[in-house]
């Protein structure tokens, strides 16, 4: 794992290897936490973007083989407000996101 300090105190940028990311996924307490790890690690979402995305933001690409996820207010380095951005969503992460729709998983009470 590689850490890089940011300008803010106690805040770091983190780079993990594929194996480290898989270990973190196995340590997840539930499906919801696993999806959050996948959205950050594989899709590249930032922590403030995760609560914004909903199932309606997932779109299949024109070729029918891939998916895009629309982040309504992503990071904007030119202003203080976010602007929409589309990110690639793998079939594996999309399959996990389908599971998250059930109320038990959304509430974090799944077994």
Account of the 3D structure:
Strands 3-4-5 form a three-stranded antiparallel β-sheet. It has a two-stranded antiparallel sheet with strand order 1-2. It has one domain. The longest helix has 13 residues, at 31-43. The two termini are 30 Å apart. Mean pLDDT is 84; it is low at 102-108. 32% of the residues lie in helices and 23% in strands. It has 111 residues and is of the alpha+beta class.
Question: Which descriptors apply to this entry?
Answer:
111 residues, alpha+beta, 3-stranded antiparallel sheet, 4 helices
What can be said about this structure in brief?
InterPro entries: DNA_brk_join_enz, Integrase-like_cat_sf. With 111 residues, the protein is an alpha+beta fold.
Task: Indicate the topology.
Elements: E1 2-5, E2 12-15, H1 18-26, H2 31-43, E3 58-60, E4 67-74, E5 83-89, H3 91-99, H4 103-106
Antiparallel strand pairs: 1-2, 3-4, 4-5
Helix pairs in contact: 1-2, 2-3
The string of secondary-structure elements, in order, is EEHHEEEHH
Oligomer: single chain
Helix content: 25-40%
How do the strands of the widest beta sheet line up side by side?
3-4-5
How far do the termini sit from each other? 30 Å
Overall spatial form: globular
Q: What fraction strand?
A: 15-25%
Sheet of most strands: 3 strands, antiparallel
Count of individual beta strands = 5
Alpha-carbon Rg, integer: 15 Å
Overall mean confidence score, pLDDT = 84
The poorly predicted ranges are 102-108
What number of structural domains do the residues give?
1
Class from helix and strand fractions: alpha+beta
Please give the count of helices: 4
Organism: Haloterrigena salifodinae
Keywords: DNA recombination
Protein name: Site-specific integrase
GO molecular function, one term: DNA binding
């Amino acid at each position: 794992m590689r850490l890089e300090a940011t300008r803010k105190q106690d805040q770091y940028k983190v780079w993990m290897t594929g194996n480290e990311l898989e270990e973190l996924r196995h340590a997840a307490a539930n499906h919801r936490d696993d999806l959050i790890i996948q959205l950050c690690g594989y899709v590249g979402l930032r922590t403030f973007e995760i609560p914004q995305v909903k199932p309606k933001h997932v779109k299949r690409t024109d070729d029918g083989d891939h998916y895009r996820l629309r982040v309504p207010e992503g990071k904007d380095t030119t202003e203080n407000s976010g602007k929409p951005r589309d990110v690639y969503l793998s079939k594996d992460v999309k399959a996990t996101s389908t599971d998250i729709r059930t109320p038990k998983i959304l509430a974090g009470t799944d077994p």
